[in-house]
Amino acid sequence: MSTHRTVLVTGATGNVGGHVVTRLLELGADVRALVREPSTSRLPSGVAVAGGDLTRPDTLDAALAGVDSVFLVWPGLSTAAAPATVERLAEPARRVVYLSAMGGRDGERPVGFWGEMEDLIERTGLESTFLRASGFATNTLGWAEQIRTRGVVRWPYGHARRSLIHEKDLAAVAALALTEDRHVGAAYTLTGPEAVSQQEQVRLIGTAIDRDLRWEEQPRAKARESLLAAWGDPAFVDMALDGWAAMSDTPEPVTTTVEDVTGVPARTFRQWALDHAADFR
Ligand SMILES: NC(=O)c1ccc[n+]([C@@H]2O[C@H](COP(=O)([O-])OP(=O)(O)OC[C@H]3O[C@@H](n4cnc5c(N)ncnc54)[C@H](OP(=O)(O)O)[C@@H]3O)[C@@H](O)[C@H]2O)c1
Fold first, then answer.
1. How many Å apart are CA 129 and CA 174, to the nearest integer?
2. What is the largest CA-CA distance in the chain?
3. Which of 118, 144, 208, 245 makes a 20 to 30 Å CA pair with 274?
4. DSSP string spanning 143-166?
5. Torsion angle of alpha carbons 90, 95, 99, 105, nearest 10°?
6. How far is residue 20's CA from residue 134's CA, in Å, rounded to a whole number?
7. What is the pLDDT of residues 219-273, one digit of tens each?
8. Which residues are bridge partners to 32 per DSSP?
9. Ligand 1 pocket by C-beta < 6 Å: which residues?
10. Residues 6+ apart with CB under 8 A from 153
């Protein structure tokens, strides 16, 4: 890799971005982190911290000055501010690695905001790599409170089988795509090594914390109500519920791309649960 590239990491205080920062430091890159609250954000020493908000492109000048590559995490479900922000990124940067989703495209057709973001980035002519992730294993942190307080997970579609991916595997691929030239133009479908049902995920979390946990199937209508309250966007909620319904019949696909790119097999959900046991105790 070329060392001393300046890489701007967005979402650097988040699950994936935090590990992208760590991997880039290990690879010898100059790392700058975009954060909304520089005074309270804790990042490793050696990282330059720049304040800014991705949905307000006029706040990004200092963060973008002299940047070579950008790891892009687009926040929220609306892309209203994205065209101006992506255009602004493309001024100094020559490369963007975008954290997208496997469901963001139906053939050539963009689906939802992930596909829209990919199209926006492509139109800038930037060197790009799209990381089309399966579901994140960190999504199951949403069960942590129920597990801690009641030892029960109430959720719909217990038989839905997902190839959830460990955030460290996403970060390992992202760091290589940011610093090596061979990933330019790639759209990687990145998944965990196997599809595991949601009920089984709960059992594996129980094993990690040495506790018997119970699955309680939640009716779709009830789940829709609480997801609407949490996410706000009915189309996104229905897309998620339809996705889980479909995965009850046909599991989420599994690829070997993490291993193909990094040389190391993707981490299992069992491993993820052990790594996060403290979050569920
Ligand atoms: N969950 C899934 O299954 C899944 C699947 C595929 C793709 N994705 C994509 O993955 C991304 C989430 O990654 P993650 O789980 O690592 O994130 P996360 O842990 O939820 O953290 C979100 C990060 O985004 C930052 N952020 C939020 N709003 C911002 C803004 N307006 N301007 C600048 N930064 C902002 C936060 O920084 P602050 O410290 O400022 O809050 C934080 O670092 C999303 O783009 C999502 O679409 C998710």
1. 9
2. 54
3. 245
4. GHHHHHHHSEEEES-TT-EE--B-
5. 80
6. 18
7. 999 999 999 999 999 999 999 999 999 999 999 999 999 999 999 999 999 999 9
8. 8, 48
9. 10-17, 34-36, 41, 53-55, 73-75, 99, 101, 133, 135-136, 138-139
10. 143, 146, 147, 202, 213, 214, 215, 216
